[in-house]
Each structure stands twice: as C-alpha cells, then as structure tokens.
UniProtKB/TrEMBL annotation:
<dbReference type="InterPro" id="IPR003749">
    <property type="entry name" value="ThiS/MoaD-like"/>
</dbReference>
<dbReference type="InterPro" id="IPR010035">
    <property type="entry name" value="Thi_S"/>
</dbReference>
<dbReference type="InterPro" id="IPR012675">
    <property type="entry name" value="Beta-grasp_dom_sf"/>
</dbReference>
<dbReference type="Pfam" id="PF02597">
    <property type="entry name" value="ThiS"/>
</dbReference>
<dbReference type="InterPro" id="IPR016155">
    <property type="entry name" value="Mopterin_synth/thiamin_S_b"/>
</dbReference>
<protein>
    <submittedName>
        <fullName>Thiamine biosynthesis protein ThiS</fullName>
    </submittedName>
</protein>
C-alpha cells in the first residue's frame, strides 16, 4: 500500500495505482486508458499531483507515489 493525500485527506492506495485509477474510484465510473468515461458521458475532472496539473492524456502513465498530494477537482454546474 502507498500513503498519499487525496483532496486534503490521508489515504492508502494500491502500490501500482495510477492517476486514472484514482479518478475512476473517486467519480465512481469506469474509465478507459485515455481517461474518458466508458459510458460515453462527460467527465468534467481535473487532476493535480503535487500542485502540477496532469493532462488527461498522461493519467494512465502517471503512477501514484508515496507521500504525494493529489487533488481531483470535479466541475459542477451552477453558481
């Protein structure tokens, strides 16, 4: 297991977890290797690892490492 901070809270994740794995778990939807939802809908999510934005095209290739701080931000309509 790997200890990280996810959205400001301590969290344990599988040692082989990637950003796409965390996003899929957080939003509760299966994602393809490109980070797009398999249901064809829109995702509306941005990810930052240690304050650096990770483009969706790199989610699958970005491993989660011990001690990282990860923010997963979901867009919400309204005001």
């Amino acid at each position: 297991m790997t200890a990280i901070t996810l959205n400001g809270r301590p969290r344990q994740v599988a040692a082989e977890a990637t950003v796409v794995d965390l996003v899929a778990e957080t939003v509760g939807r299966p994602l393809g290797p490109d980070g797009a939802p398999l249901d064809g809908g829109r995702l509306g999510v941005a990810v930052a690892v240690d304050a650096a934005v990770v483009p969706r095209s790199r989610w699958r290739r970005t491993p989660v490492a011990e001690g990282q701080s990860i923010e997963i931000i979901t867009a919400v309509q309204g005001g």
